[in-house]
Automatic annotation (TrEMBL):
Recorded GO MF terms: UDP-glucosyltransferase activity
Alphabetical UniProt keywords: Glycosyltransferase, Transferase
Protein name: Glycosyltransferase
The EC number(s) this enzyme carries: 2.4.1.-
Assigned protein family: Belongs to the UDP-glycosyltransferase family.
Transferase keyword on record: yes
SUPFAM superfamilies: UDP-Glycosyltransferase/glycogen phosphorylase
Length: 475
């Protein structure tokens, strides 16, 4: 019940329909389904089903069915309330004329594993993020090693293949975890259930993310298929229906007036923001760096993330100076990210490192400056910086101190160092771009088929094999 999960699931549904010809039933709560409906292309056979749900029944504000409309402290209550969907989900499956070939569920709906098993239906978890990032996420919540040491650094007991984790790389809920808090209780139950699934589909590429993929293979003893990138924007080139702060055409026109590889693009995603002091230091750093930039700017923590930008959050006259010098473009609410990243003027992406943004950036050969804010983003930066080497981290979280000198130093390192770090990152990002292209390549004249394409076919072949064993008709 979050946009960062729903959109990849919609992309997966469309891929299954388009490439394999199956009928897909997409299930969620009423408001989430209504929000997704305009994103369906015409002539699709995908069925959107609303399960009864009322947020008010769970001490949540009215019409609160998605994390993007809730303050952070209430998100766990929303997640816990998803258990109330279980009876209506069972009724839905039993009401179908034919049992489904398979049930593909999110990691937050571990309870669907037992339902599928009771009904003899093949089940898979689809992880919409990367394998490496979610492997660390699983390990931390299932083992909670941070509670067993006073050290700032610790190893993961079931993931020795990676370097030690620092406490500053933990999301806020993991830092605050006690072992008996709501997040801990929920994850210990639901994540453990997901490990009993018949397999894992993961939104990643085999050669890019093999360390994380092998963690899940060891942990579950079940098949794990890398089927990515599954990304709605990349696949369908669709523009968001969100209210844009600036039209896509104006963004592209602005980029057209700048030299190749000269613009830094900055975005923390639709649900993340930084503190007011960090906002100020970032602005000062951008100005002092002397580099061109497009910044999707949002109010700092403690304020409505979709509200207006106040002048006191930025250096006096900052936006006007950037506009007059044609050096910086500040965009409110939403920007055409895919169009910006694919433009020849864009050099580097300063990102919160959500997995969808990472896939978009690397699919286009754009290296990254990492500033993780929440969830698996810290782990994603660790993968990008330590293993793939397409990223430099500039800051962690939205509560730590950052100086504008740090911003200037990292921007200079990545954008000025043509024969050093910056050039190495760009070269590696372009190699990853080709790796991703190969993974999703359909049969060509030479008979080559990408690893992600083959993995998707293998998944459905296994589901069909299980159906034959259970001797159930499927739809």
């Amino acid at each position: 019940m979050a946009q960062g999960h729903l959109i990849p699931y919609l992309a997966l549904a469309l891929e299954i329909e388009k490439k394999l010809g199956y009928t897909v039933t997409f299930v969620n709560t009423p408001l989430n389904i209504q929000k997704l409906r305009p994103s369906l292309p015409p002539n699709t056979s995908i069925r959107l089903i609303e399960l009864p749900y009322s947020s008010s029944d769970h001490n949540l504000p009215p019409n609160s069915e998605n994390t993007d409309v809730l303050p952070y402290p209430l998100i766990i209550r929303l997640i816990e309330s998803s258990l109330s969907l279980k009876p209506s989900f069972i009724s839905l499956i039993q009401s179908l004329t034919h049992p489904p070939l398979c049930i593909i569920a999110d990691m937050f709906f571990g309870w669907t594993v037992d339902i599928a098993r009771d009904l003899g239906i093949f089940h898979s978890i689809f992880l919409s993020g990367g394998a490496y990032g979610f492997a660390i996420y699983y390990s931390i919540w299932l083992n909670q090693p941070q509670l067993k040491t006073d050290s700032d650094e610790f190893s993961l007991p079931d993931f020795s293949q990676i370097s030690r984790i620092h406490r500053s790389q933990l999301a806020n809920n993991a830092v605050q975890a006690t072992g008996t808090d709501s997040w801990s209780v929920f994850f210990k139950t639901e994540l453990a259930l997901t490990l009993k699934s018949d397999g894992f589909l993961i939104n990643t590429v085999e050669d890019l993310d093999f360390i994380g993929l092998n963690y899940f293979r060891r942990k579950t003893g079940k098949p794990v298929w890398a089927i990515g990138p599954v990304n709605y924007s990349l696949t369908y080139k669709a523009r968001s229906n969100k209210e844009a702060g600036l039209s896509p055409d104006l963004c592209i026109e602005w980029l057209d007036n700048h030299q190749e590889d000269s613009v830094l693009y900055i975005s923390f995603g639709s649900q993340n923001t930084i503190s007011s002091s960090q906002l100020m230091e970032l602005a000062i750093g951008l100005e002092k760096s002397g580099k061109n930039f497009i910044w999707v700017i949002r109010p700092p923590i403690g304020f409505d993330i979709n509200g207006e930008i106040r002048s006191e959050w930025l250096p006096e006259g900052f936006e006007e100076r950037m506009r007059e010098k044609n050096r910086g473009l500040l965009v409110r609410k939403w920007a055409p990210q895919l169009e910006i990243l694919s433009h020849k003027s864009t050099s580097v992406f300063l990102s919160h490192c959500g997995w969808n943004s990472i896939l978009e950036s690397l699919s286009l050969g754009v290296p990254i400056i990492g500033w993780p804010i929440a969830a698996d983003q810290f782990n994603n930066v660790k993968l990008l910086e330590e293993e793939i080497r397409v990223c430099v981290e500039v800051a962690r979280g939205n509560r730590s101190e950052i100086k504008h000198e740090d911003v200037v130093r990292v921007i200079d390192l990545v954008m000025n160092n043509k024969k050093g770090k910056g050039e190495e990152m760009k070269k590696k990002a372009c190699e990853v771009r080709e790796m991703i292209k190969d993974a999703i390549k359909e049969d060509d004249e030479a008979g080559f088929k990408g690893s992600s394409v083959k993995a998707m076919e293998e998944f459905f072949n296994m589901a069909l094999l299980m159906r034959k064993k259970t001797k159930l008709d499927y739809q």
